[in-house]
Amino acid sequence: MEKSSCIVLAVLMVVFFNAADVDAQVFNCLGKNDGNYPDPVDTCSGFFYMCSNGNPYYFACALKGTVFSVALDRCEYCNIVSPCNANPNALRCPNGGPTCPTVIPPGYGCVCDATSCSLVLLPTTAVPRPTCPPYDPNIYTCTCGATSCQLNLIPTTTPARPTCPAYDPNVYTCTCGVSSCQLNLIPTTTTARPTCPPYDSNIYTCTCGVSSCQLNLIPTTTTARPTCPPYDPNVYTCTCGSTSCQLNLIPTTTTARPTCPPYDPNVYTCTCGATSCQLNLIPTTTTARPTCPPYDPNVYTCTCGATSCSLTLIPTTTTARPTCQPFDPNVYTCVCGSTSCSLQLIPTTPRPGGVTAPCVGRTLRPTPGPITLSCQNLPDGNYEDPYDPCSGGFYMCTNGNPKYFECALQNTVFDKYQNRCDYCSVVTQCGGTIG
Q1: Are the C-beta atoms of residues 29 and 51 closer than 8 Å to each other?
Q2: Which of 85, 101, 105, 163 is most buried as measured by Cβ atoms within 10 A of its Cβ?
Q3: What is the DSSP string of 262-331?
Q4: Residue closest to 324 by CA, chosen among 337, 341, 304, 349
Q5: Do 72 and 113 sit in the same domain of this protein?
Q6: Are residues 236 and 314 in the same domain?
Q7: Distances (CA, A) of 219 to 40, 71, 157
Q8: Over the stretch 76-116, which tens digit does the pLDDT of each residue have?
Q9: 32 with 7: CB under 8 angstroms?
């Protein structure tokens, strides 16, 4: 051995004898734990045994003057190994050799050569050791190196492994067990997390990312999904459950909401948007709808129910209303607009001054009566007088407005089939014959 110092922790045991050479009567590993054991024949001989899986192996300390220390579980100079240092006749233990101090401070070791011993600071590991993350030992093993630890899949595990759902690694970590994976919020993230809107867990699942959450339809659900009715997204939001959808008023909208006019719910439904409401005819209603009579929209409004329509005077109109002239209620009715009133012939009353019979031989034109035709729902065009088609007068409808005209020649009437005035003798509806 050279004079240079050598830390005793590094003394190597290099001489090895095969287990077959060990005398089982001298030493055996039966009932012993794996580890190193002194030579039972001479504990200061410089030899020792190693038990591994019940088999004994025989070793010799590599350096001259060293023996196996049970307390230190290594070879050391015999002058510091008790009780060998008390036996001057111990094998390979030089009598009167250098000895280590009785008390060795923590963190120090003793280094001896042939002539002296000294204390040296033991090396310590300054960097923290990597540790395994939480894991399922039924699925993984963990192996750590100098800077990191690695999870290794146990190859004999045959069931399918659970996998992490799609997630944002800046916000979450994912830990998987035997049957499922768990997303864990990273505690150092300070931004507000997006949250799922109210939803039906029987129909949807919800997955959230960094800035928003997504509802995903469960693929095994076979029932028809409810859908939102038409609505204005500037005014409402729509939330659907398993059987129906609900319109919710956006609370930040400050404009006044439009409201439905009075209506008959047996005949109409009402749908409102951002600025107006619309009455929609219920398609299953088969009865004929009542219609408004001709009226002046500058003076009246018209409201219809299931069986009739009613004219209502606009309360903000301040101009004087026209009034009807004296008339016979048995013959006429009177309808007033914004500037004038008009007498209308009661249909079952014969028109005064004329006849409704065929005009054969008639030489005088009947006196035309008040307007008796409504052009509502009629296309533009010419129409006969509905209460006296042979009077020699007719109506022209333009943009829903009726205008009365007279045939220019005496004894001529309006022929609705030819759309012109002609002598009554050739107009079939007035008793005439064609040709």
Answers
A1: yes
A2: 85
A3: S--TTTEEEEE-SS-EEEEE-TT--SPPP-PPS--TTTEEEEE-SS-EEEEE-TT--SPPP-PPP--TTT
A4: 341
A5: yes
A6: no
A7: 74, 68, 29
A8: 887 778 777 765 444 445 444 566 666 667 766 666 655 66
A9: no
Please tell me whether residues 373 and 329 are part of one structural domain. Answer: no
Could you tell me the residue range of the domain that residue 435 belongs to?
A: 355-435
Domain count, the chain: 4
- Domain contains 145: no
The answer to whether residues 386 and 416 belong to one domain is yes
Residue 243 lies inside a defined structural domain of this protein? yes
Q: Are residues 304 and 380 in the same domain?
A: no
Q: Tell me the average pLDDT across 302-307.
A: 81
The dihedral formed by the CA atoms of 144, 145, 146 and 147, expressed in degrees to the nearest 10: -70
Residue 123: pLDDT over 70: no
Q: Given 121, 148, 170, which residue is the final one in a domain?
A: 121
Asked if residues 210 and 171 have their Cβ atoms less than 8 Å apart, the reply is yes
Whether 16 and 108 map to the same domain: the answer is yes
Cα(275)–Cα(293) distance, rounded to whole angstroms? 28
Domain-located, residue 191: no
CA distances from 278 to 262, 297, 347 (A): 12, 19, 36
pLDDT 10s digits, 323-374: 787 776 766 677 777 777 877 766 543 333 333 444 543 334 445 556 778 8
Among the candidates 309, 326, 345, a domain finishes at 345
> Which tokens in the block code for residue 411?
């004894």
* DSSP one-letter code for 104: -
In a domain, 185, yes or no: no
Residue 14, amino acid: V
On the 0-12 / 13-18 / 19+ scale of CB atoms within 10 A, 198 is: exposed
Instruction: Give the C-alpha separation, 65 to 48, whole Å.
Output: 14
Q: Kindly provide the residue ranges of all beta strands, DSSP E only, lying in 154-286, ordered along the sequence.
A: 172-176, 181-185, 204-208, 213-217, 236-240, 245-249, 268-272, 277-281
What average pLDDT is seen over the chain?
Answer: 75
Tokens of 430: 């007035």
